[in-house]
Structures are given as structure tokens and as C-alpha cells.
Amino acid sequence: MTFVNGMMCKNYDEYLTATEKFQTPAQNFGFSSASGDLAIRINGMLPAKYDQDGRFVEYGNNSKNDWSAFIPRQQNPHVVNPPENYVSSANQRSASKNYPYYFTGNFENYRNKTIIEKLKTGSDFTAQDMQKMQMSSFSPKAKEFVSVIPTDCRQMGSASGINWYDKLKEWSFEYLKDKTEPVFFEIYMKHLRMNTFDEIYSKLDEVAIPIPKDWVLYKNILNDPLNEIFNIKKTSTIENADNIQKLAFFKSIREIDSLMTAWKNLNWGNYNPLHIYHPTRIPALSANNLAADGCPDAINAKGNSFGPSWRMIVHQKKPVEAYGVYPGGQSGNPFSPYYKNMVNDWVEGKYHVLHQNITMEELSKKQVKKVVASPNKVKS
User: Fold this and answer.
1) What is the pLDDT of residues 37-83, one digit of tens each?
2) What is the DSSP code string of 108-167?
3) 66: nearest Cα among 47, 80, 79, 52
4) How far is 19 from 16, CA to CA, in rounded Å?
5) What is the Cα–Cα distance from 26 to 46, expressed in whole angstroms?
6) pLDDT confidence tier of residue 2, bands split at 50, 70 and 90
7) What is the dihedral of CA 141, 147, 148, 153, to 10 degrees?
């Protein structure tokens, strides 16, 4: 009832009261009103942890490791009517280093920057502008890593090296389904990680060790190119970031040239197709091998088996203007034409009008089917 109660409120104070009983799972609650108020907060019960608590496995039979208190709800990370006149969240860090409570987690480091940049530089957004923003396949990570590729890489692999180097430098950094640049870049990143973190990859069969995040790799290339992490242990020479990038680029040329020969039409859409699995994994109930724009670092955060499951835009004017689309349909019956009829619309970014404040008379004009329930009278 938390969400229902929250949507029935007339102002932010009523909204806080209506949603304060929500406990778990803690998640971002966004708020906007027709009067122009904006807010976002992490709503839920958050344990008050001591420094570094939760980073590693702890003994369950030691009461010291129990949660002893929770962060007061009013101190949960939140912001109300910020001077920027917008709020946003894409699973990035929720609070600054000055936040009085220790917290840890797996935070997003790229697509939130794209969102903030678009909101900061734009103005007078229409619902259609927001649709374009939600479908953005721009990767700031790709832009960062391509900017530091050594110019010497252009001479590798003769004509092929020149071709791929120039393609990357001219690339818009958008993961579009009909482009090959995203394919080359992903192959390049794979070799860059494996050559840099060779010590970790060699141990993965023995112990689960997390591979450092790509933003950590980028910062080391940029600020600490002589870091020992770039040295490949099994070679007699001492490699640095420049050597590792060149090696990764050379290996990428060989790999993609081989793929281009084997595939009739290599592009991002068929190299990394999207699969929307049914919980049973039955192919007939799923939507598989979809060619789609996007990548995990873009606002259109599409992966091999995931993506933005619900796109919605609401313009709080009178009457309300709202649009939405999701990768499925409005029927749970696999034999119904409405079981997954919106999947292609979701892939292509075709939004549907979400009808608001509609009267019974208006609703009857838009009906698809009509079911009349006439229970038999019980004879006394």
C-alpha cells in the first residue's frame, strides 16, 4: 500500500508520512508534484554500519557482527527541491564522502553522468525529448578509453590497423545495432582487462576474485601508467599502460578481422543480441535474439539478457500527458496476441500513450474486449 498511499498525496509532507513505513528492500523514491516540488530519497531501513562493515565475510556466531542500529529515516540520503531543478538516479553513489554513516555497495559510474549532463545543459524538455534521452545509447566509458588509445596503434596490422583506429576516433560512441565500432571496442576492452589483470584472471579457477572496475583501469592508464598492475607476469619484459593498450589493440585487430570473415554481416545487434527470457526459459515463451541498441554504460542500459524494463514519461500538466512501454504485453496468456506484442515497440523506442483521468464513457470507446460476468442466481 506504500506506493498507492504515496500517489494519493497532495504535497511532499503528506508523501513523507504516507511512505515512511516502507522498510525493505530499500530503494530510490522519486517525488514530483504538479506545483513543481521535486525530491528523491533512499527509502527503507538502512543499517548503521561501522567502518568497512559488510565488505568481507564475517562470523555469524559473533554478536559483534550483528546490526545494532539503523540510520534514522530522516537521515537517509535525500534531496528536496535542489537548485539544479532536477533530481536523478542511475544507481550511482547516493551520498558524498561527508555523509556521516559508512555505506558500501556496487555503484554505477557512467550512465548517471550522461543523464546529469543532458539535464544540466538542456531546458524546456518535452515528453518527446525525454523519450530520446531514455533511448540514448551513448557510452561515456567508450569515449574515455578511446581518447587514450596510443596513436602508434594506427600503424598496427597495416591497412586493418589504420581502418579500425580511424573508425574508433570518428565513432560517436553510440552502441547502435547496425554498427561495428561497438563490437571492436568491446573486444578491445576484453583484451585490455585480461592483459592488465592477468594475475587475477589466472586465479579465477581457484578463488572468486572480483575484477577491478573499468573506471579504476581508466584512472590508472591516465594517472599511473607505470603501475605494476600493467606488467604481464609471464613475460621477461616490464610492461606499462602504453604497452598493454598496444597489445590489446593488436589482438583486437586479429580477432575482429577473423569475425568479419566468418560472419556475413557483423554488427552490434547480431554480435550481442538481447534475450528476454521467460522464467521457465522456454524459448516459445521468450523473446530471443533481438537486435537492439544500447549497452550497460548507456542510459539505454541494455545487456545480453537485461534492459530498462519499464520506460515511462509523465508530464504533470492538465490533463496529464504520459507515455510508456515495456518489453512484454498486457496478457499473461502465451496464446494471446497481446502476450508479447510490445516487445518490438520497446526495442525500437515506440512509446504508448498512458491514459489518465479517463471517464467510463471514454474508456468504453477504447475497449479491446468486453467481458460480462453474470453469476447464476442461487435458488433458495
Assistant:
1) 999 999 999 999 888 888 888 898 988 888 889 999 999 999 999 99
2) --SHHHHHHHHHHH--S--HHHHHHHHT--B-HHHHHHHHTS-GGGGGTTHHHHHHHHHH
3) 47
4) 5
5) 7
6) confident
7) 120
Assigned C-alpha cell, 359: 471517464
Q: What is the DSSP string of 312-366?
A: EEEE-SSS-EEEEE-SS-S---TTSTTSSTTHHHHHHT--EE---S--HHHHHHT
Cα–Cα distance for residue pair 377/84, rounded to 1 Å: 62
Q: Is 362 exposed, middle or buried (0-12, 13-18, 19+ CB in 10 A)?
A: exposed
* Per-residue pLDDT, 377: 65
**C-alpha–C-alpha distance, residues 251 and 189, integer Å:** 11
Closest C-alpha among 79, 97, 64, 72 to residue 31: 79
Q: Is-above-0.70 flag for pTM?
A: yes
Q: Which domains does the chain have, with CATH numbers?
A: 2-87 (3.60.20.10)
Cell readout for 145 is 578509453
What one-letter code names the amino acid at 15? Y
Q: What is the mean pLDDT of residues 9-36?
A: 90
Q: Is 311 helix (H, G, I), strand (E, B) or coil?
A: strand
* Cα–Cα distance for residue pair 137/133, rounded to 1 Å: 9
> How far apart, in Å, are the Cα atoms of 1 and each of 14, 15, 21?
15, 13, 10
Closest CA to 9 of 45, 41, 33: 33
In a 3-state reduction of DSSP, which class is residue 369? coil
